[in-house]
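Chapter summary example: a protein plus magnesium ion.
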Amino acid sequence: MKEMEKDIDRIIISEEEIKSRICELGQEITSSYDIDESLVMVCILRGAAIFMADLSRQIDMPVIFDFMDVSSYGTGTKSGVVRIIKDLEENIEERHVLIVEDIIDTGKTIKNVVDMLETRKPASIKIVTMLDKPERRIVKQVEVDFNGFEIPNEFVVGYGLDFAEKYRNLPYIGVLKEELYSD
Ligand code: IMP
Ligand code: MG
């Protein structure tokens, strides 16, 4: 990991901390459901892929994997409507859905995803996010059911999170050196 490590200013969440928090999250999630059918875990690509893989193995009930990719809303003052790049394969009507996100920042992405999925009449929708940056929240009407870690307003990479598609495979979460993205 040397090639990527030199770009990291400091580690804010270690591999061990991630592991133990995911174990707790898995237990919390498992005990929050009392359902007979499989839980549909919806991974928001691409950032949540690693989290989904680890978290799902700590959830003690049958789950189904599905994946959704949405476009970012761009920069500046855009309306905040996201576009579906890849839709779900499953029909979620009358089913229990757990949306798995990497990080909630302004809240626009998750709000749009929830609104889109709600029109499909699922039995329930819950949200789990690995990271939350509450200081940056613009959309307040989203309720996050399970949250791994609250972090300060800094740009982080690793454990699925990228900068220009790089650093997703770092096993920890770190703050990227500012000089790398400040131009
Ligand atoms: P939101 O719509 O502003 O909540 O943005 C959420 C998305 O922005 C996440 O799914 C990430 O893809 C991206 N994002 C936000 N903050 C970070 C960060 O610190 N590192 C990497 N990606 C981030
Ligand atoms: Mg994302």
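Key point: The first strand starts at residue 8 and ends at 13.
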